[in-house]
Each structure stands twice: as structure tokens, then as C-alpha cells.
Design goal:
Number of helices of chain A: 4
Shape of chain A: globular
Radius of gyration of chain A: 12 Å
Shape of chain B: globular
CATH topology of chain B: Glutaredoxin
Number of domains of chain B: 1
Helix content of chain B: 40-55%
Strand content of chain B: 15-25%
Structural class of chain A: alpha+beta
CATH class of chain A: Alpha Beta
Strand order of the largest sheet of chain B: 2-1-3-4
Oligomer: heterodimer
Largest sheet of chain B: 4 strands, mixed
Number of helices of chain B: 5
Number of strands of chain A: 3
Strand order of the largest sheet of chain A: 1-2-3
CATH architecture of chain A: 2-Layer Sandwich
Chain lengths: 81, 102
Amino acid sequence: MTTAEDIQSWIQAGMQAERIEVQGDGAHFEAVIVSSEFQGKNTLARHRIVYTALGDKMKEAIHALSMKTLTPVEAEQNTGE
Amino acid sequence: MNIQEKIKHQVESNPVVLYMKGTKDFPMCGFSGRVLQILRECEVDFVCFNVLEDEELRQGIKEYSNWPTIPQLYINAEFIGGCDIMNEMHASGELKTALTAA
């Protein structure tokens, strides 16, 4: 069964990211990804980067993944909330 | 018509199209249920296709948008995104604006 750690390491291997946090129960996962690659990109483009990093894992090993994609600056602002 | 042409025709002949798991009355997945709720809150007419009834469509739509998950929303033939993106755009009011202009 896929674990949150698996997903974290797959994303890590496929893209440059400052921080990746994944939580989930084997079927549904939630990820927070902080990367300067997201700079100047809309949410659609950001999610595409993560999906590309995950590649075939999205077809085989991951049923449902919900994501928050932030730049380092946005992540900084979020911590105050 | 192959499946890619069929999808192109569907999104071009309807202003707002949702590809989902289940139907408007019986969504079969939490994400599909959530996006239905969002579209209802935006008070917009939309056309739905149930990918669970059509395996060719289920695979074809992922290739069409180069996006691995369902639900998928299209406005004026443009791929908008899935549940996370719709949630964000709904919260900011951007989605309602885009739908009203459709």
C-alpha cells in the first residue's frame, strides 16, 4: 500500500522543492509542497509540475491526492495564519 | 470520431462541461461531489459526463488535458482544473467570474 512517505519521496525525486509534507491514509492524501519553481506560475501550472514529478505513480499507486502548492514567500506568509 | 475528437466536440459545443465520477444526483467520489457543490453555489448551468459509464472517456479525458485526475472542469473549451483548483478559484471569486462570462 502507498504511504505518505512514498509520495513524499517520489515528489522529492521528480522536482526541486524546499519543503514537501504529505499526510494520508493509503487512499486519500494531502500534500503541501513549497518550491521556488512555482514562482510566477498559476495553480494549474504548479499542479502540472507535481503531476509530472509523480508520472506514472498517479496512474498506478495514488488514488486521490489533494495539493497546496506554494512558493517560499507564500509559505512564509501562510505561517502567520 | 475517435475519443479525442469526441471530447473536443463536447467541450466546444457546451460553455461549461464537467467530467466526473457519477452523476449530478449521485456523485461517486468525494472530489466530484465537492465540485458539483461549487458549481451549484455559482448558480451556473453545466453539462456533465460520467466517466464511470465510459472507460474510453475515462482514459481519453486524461490524455486530452494531460491531467491525471478526475473531476475536470472546462469553460469555453479551456481546461480549468480539478477539485483543488476549483476550490481555490471559488474562494477567491475568480470561478464565478469565469463562469458568468462563459
